[in-house]
Amino acid sequence: MRTKTITGRRVRGPGMALAVSSLIILAACGGGDSDDSAGGPPTKLGENESKVSILAWPGYVEDGSNDPKVDWVTPFEKETGCEVTSKAYGTSDEAFNLAKTGDYDVIAASGDLTARMVASKEAVEVNTDLIPNYEKVYDFLKDQEWNTFDGKHYGVPHGYGANLLMYNADEVKPAPTSWKAVFEDASKYKGKVTAYDSPIYIADAALYLMKHQPDLGIENPYALDEKQFAAAVDILKEQRKNIGEYWADYLKEISAFETGDLVIGTTWQVIVNSIDTKKANVKAILPEEGATGWSDTWMISSKAKSPNCAYAWLNYIDSPKANAAATEYFGEAPNSEEACDFAADKSFCDTYKAGDEEFASQLWYWRTPVEKCLDGRTDVKCVDYAEWTKAWTEIKG
Amino acid sequence: MSQGDVARAAVPPPGVTSARRLSSLLSARPRLRLSLLLSAPLTWLVLIYVVALAALLVTAFWSVDSFTGELNRSFTLENIREITTESLYRTVTIRTLTVALVVTVVDVAIALPIAFYMAKIASRRMQRILLIAVLTPLWASYLVKAFAWRSVLSDVGILEWSTSRLGLESPGYGLVAVVMTQAYIWLPYVILPIFAGLERVPDSLLDAAGDLGASAWQTLRTVVFPMLVPAIIAGSIFSFSLTLGDYITVNIVGGANQMLGNLVYTNVGAANNLPLAAAVALIPVLIMIGYLSVVRRTGALDNL
User: Fold this and answer.
1) What pLDDT, in 10s, does the model give residues B139-182?
2) Alpha-carbon distances, residue B198 vs A78, A95, B105, B205, B218 (angstroms)
3) I want to staple A242 with a disulfide (CB 3.0 to 4.6 A). Which of A48, A186, A201, B192 is the partner?
4) With a CB-CB cutoff of 8 Å, which residues 8-27 of chain B face chain A?
5) Cβ of A389 and B256 within 8 Å?
6) A245 close to A267: Cβ distance less than 8 angstroms
7) Does the ipTM surpass 0.85?
8) CA distances to A295, A303, A340, A346 from A327, in Å
């Protein structure tokens, strides 16, 4: 497998030189075209360039270099002739800084990044007609406020997942059904409670208040005015007293639950699956209030040097087979029904509740909190992400 | 007249080459000589160290656009006002200082007897073995050691297992765990200067004190200790400054606690607020400048 690739690349060498030189000619001829299309997305694709550069969450672009068995990039390279280089990032903020360098053609962005990408004109409108596999994507993932702005598509969906409530069933009794277990009732497990270590976790508190203190009038956990925000920060400061440790590194949460240092807190499905149930009898639920979550989008950079290869990647990664491989490896729901058939584990789509619209409707996907309230209120200013970050360090104290 | 005299008288004055001119210029002007000699290392020091510090200082007076993440390079005192007035920064600074101080005290307390044994009591052979033993932990990665402590301090860790038999409780993850881990990690850096300092105390002084009737404790207190103060301070600079800037250990064993390093880290990473991170980073810089200028008077810096 590996040898084949290498010889394949070697053969491609002189061909690539030809392709590059022809590209230069094409570019010289096609100068006028790109000016015409500057106002909108392309209506037809040209020939593939020779390479494409991708910025994504870890585990989204695997070429076998981390694990020889995990490789969905090599088939793409063979199929399209676009050689892939990729970079993984750790936070949406880091991704934003990297995207601004213009070194990347394609960017995988969560909902707390997409709006910033569009607002700063780092991402371009995508013509979904040029992406045949887009048709197969679940309808409830399309035309959402984190991938479609002013009715224009700025990317294609990748996959989604929820921030669940995980608990050790041997220690936490009775079994929780509500986020109350990590807020008001957290003192029962003082020192063994955990939470996701990011300002975006404030939204989890807001979601809880939305259901339990209706008089605050929270409509969207990412659109909080001063008063609502202060209430969310207060219950998080209360929660802080019972926190054993926060987690951002998912391996840290796995080990802490296995050793029993933590017994209850937020989690991802992939973490639940990774914990050895012989060591800790963990269970994860979607509490009655619903949950926050993420839904990721593949975007194309406005400075893309290889737009055709970028379209090719968007189409490829939305194909059921590649999407199943990538989402199953990361541990999130895929973007189409068909992807379920390609999963290595037959229960994959059940585990991640893919296509379960009722489950999906209870999720509040990560968004970037901005001053202009996301829930449409115009009479107040909402607290923006910079304030969220500041408050988060204060909560931790 | 002999041939030799003629020859001597006829020695022509040395040719005025440019190298010779330079050499006489330098020998006449010692200051110029010194500055040329120092210019290369100074350039390096200035570029790598002073410029970086200056950049830090300048950045602390900028701000950042919260939505687009662009740096706004106009002067503002907002960050400084924030870190001096908001209680969060005071709490975290005091916590960090306390941890650094306790780590230093613990390290010095452990290092003194070990270093004394190594320098004054152990045989030559034993001394070498101990020296290697002290240095060996430095071969292992910092992270490996911190994670080892994480499993030691865990609920099912060896510490809980052994202390529960004595009716005690393991401290678990928290500031105590941070102090233990940091004290362990920086211990070699404290033992070595104290050991070097003790080696310089002549044995004859100890003998003389004994001959004059001083007890062992009196000898230690009135003879050894005063000579050792600079070495102890030199060691404390390591443990104190290294703990002051740490953010990894507290992430691994510190539970939910934050230190100054964590504030810098979140502001760079999660918040993308470099100016505020720079302002926070100035706090340990100022503390260290204060500490070093006090220490300089003791002459301890000669021992580094």
Assistant:
1) 999 999 999 999 999 888 888 888 888 888 778 899 999 999 99
2) 68, 53, 18, 12, 16
3) A186
4) none
5) no
6) no
7) no
8) 12, 27, 10, 14
Residue B156 contacts A where some CB pair is shorter than 8 Å: yes
* Residue contacts between A and B (CB atoms, under 8 Å): 86
| A195 within some domain | yes
Per domain, the residue ranges of chain B are: 88-303
Q: What is the CATH number of the domain that holds A201?
A: 3.40.190.10
Containing A107, the helix (H) or strand (E) segment is strand A106-109
Which domain covers residue A305, as residue numbers?
Answer: 40-160+295-358
pTM summary value: 0.77
| CB nearest B271 (choices: A119, A240, A389) | A389
3-state SS, residue A54 = strand
| Smallest Cα distance from B71 to chain A, Å | 11
On the 0-12 / 13-18 / 19+ scale of CB atoms within 10 A, A161 is buried
How far is Cα A393 from Cα B257, in angstroms, rounded to an integer? 10
The reply to whether A260 touches chain B by the CB within 8 Å rule is yes
Distance from CA of B83 to the nearest CA of A (A): 11
And the tokens for A251?
Answer: 């391996």
Q: What is the pLDDT along chain A (397 residues), one digit of tens a residue?
A: 333 333 333 334 444 444 444 444 444 443 333 333 446 788 888 889 999 999 998 889 989 887 788 899 999 999 999 999 999 887 777 788 788 888 999 999 998 889 888 988 899 999 999 999 999 999 989 998 889 999 999 999 999 988 999 999 999 989 999 999 999 999 999 999 999 988 889 999 999 999 999 999 999 999 999 999 999 999 999 999 999 999 887 788 999 999 999 999 999 887 888 888 889 999 999 899 999 998 999 999 999 999 999 999 999 999 999 999 999 888 889 999 999 999 888 888 888 888 888 888 888 999 888 888 988 888 999 998 878 888 998 999 8
> At CA B62, angle to CA B61 and CA B67, rounded to 5?
145
B68 CB within 8 Å of a chain A CB: yes
**CB within 8 A of A176, min separation 6: which ones?**
A165, A167, A185, A264, A285, A287
A242 touches chain B (CB under 8 A): no
Regarding the domain with residue range B88-303, which homologous superfamily does it belong to in the CATH classification? MetI-like (1.10.3720.10)
Contact by Cβ (8 Å): A320, A338: yes
**Helices B124-135, B175-199: crossing angle, 10 deg rounding:** 150
Q: Nearest-CA residue of chain B relative to A372? A: B67
Say how many CA atoms lie within 13 Å of A151 toward its Cβ: 1
